[in-house]
Design a protein that fits this description.
The chain is α+β, with helices and mostly antiparallel strands. It has 6 helices and 14 strands. The chain folds into 2 domains: 3-103, Aminotransferase class 4, branched-chain amino acid transferase, N-terminal domain (D-amino Acid Aminotransferase, Chain A, domain 1, 2-Layer Sandwich); 112-267, D-amino Acid Aminotransferase, Chain A, domain 2, CATH 3.20.10.10.
Length: 269
């Protein structure tokens, strides 16, 4: 693992930095294929939007992209993560802290089983300053994942207090009904996923209808297949949501293949 702190290898990170002390900051995680990050510009644009919401002053995105590309080339295959905070002084008269590091791919399952978990911490459509911001404060999401694994599931599907489907702790949920791909709308305060955006672009190219909205879990009773999307896990079938069982379907396979081709096309790999 190679770690850069404000572009310097071997530099230290203060324990007083708000990203360490309070989880106050934002982050991105981009998958690396053949020594290149997929859609790193999209990831850094989202990082910049998160930084504005958190009042973090970043170096130029070109500078951060350069750090990411250098580590990606060295890594070959894996994940590049970018963490940012306002710095130990809380942004008072100085630029923030940016940490960029590389790591191998984590374990990725072929398919996932999800436990519905109510997420009272999620904005779920309520307006607030950090709705949709990719903050470092993921402890509630990670607790939901642990709850799911303790119940013999692979991950959680977060729900609003009224039962509206939101997202997974680190992924987007998508399902198919009568050939239409459905997914929760961004105005619920869910993350504007880079993979979600890419898949919706692919659906437009292939004339696949997409419906974004607010859906209760009961909607899945009519689903022909369910899938999850993430930068790290890519496109994976979902075999269960609670007691509802699903089979991997042709739309999931088609979307997964199209996504792989898109990566290869954009990165020439």
């Amino acid at each position: 693992m190679t770690v850069l702190v404000n572009g310097e290898a071997g530099a230290t990170l203060s324990v007083l930095d708000p990203m360490v002390l309070r989880g106050d900051g934002c982050f991105e995680a981009a998958r690396v294929y053949g020594g290149a990050c997929f859609r790193i510009d999209d990831h850094l644009d989202r990082l910049a939007r998160s930084a504005v919401a958190l009042e973090i002053e970043l170096p130029s995105l070109d500078t951060i992209a350069g750090w990411c590309r250098a580590l990606a080339e060295e890594l070959g295959t894996g994940v590049i993560r970018v963490l940012a905070s306002a710095g130990p002084s809380g942004g008072q008269g100085e630029r923030g802290t940016v940490v960029v590091f590389s790591e191998p791919l984590p374990e990725i399952l072929e398919a996932y089983r999800l436990l519905p978990v109510v997420a009272p911490w999620h904005p779920a459509g309520e307006q607030w300053a950090l709705a949709g911001v990719k903050t470092l404060s993921y402890a509630p999401n990670m607790a939901a994942s642990r709850q799911a694994r303790a119940s013999s599931f692979d991950d959680a599907l977060l729900l609003s207090k009224t039962g509206t489907m939101l997202e997974m702790p680190t992924s987007t949920i998508v399902w198919v009904i009568d050939g239409v791909l459905e997914t929760p709308a961004l105005d619920l305060g869910i993350l504007a996923s880079i993979t979600r955006k890419a898949v919706l672009e692919l659906c437009e190219r292939q004339d696949i209808r997409v419906s974004e909205g607010r859906f209760a879990t009961e909607r899945l009773a009519s689903a022909d297949e369910v899938m999850m999307l993430s930068s790290i896990k890519e496109v994976r079938p979902v075999l269960a949501v609670g007691k509802r069982l699903f089979e991997p379907g042709p739309m999931t396979a088609m979307v997964g293949d199209a996504y792989s081709r898109l990566v290869a096309e954009e990165l020439n790999c």
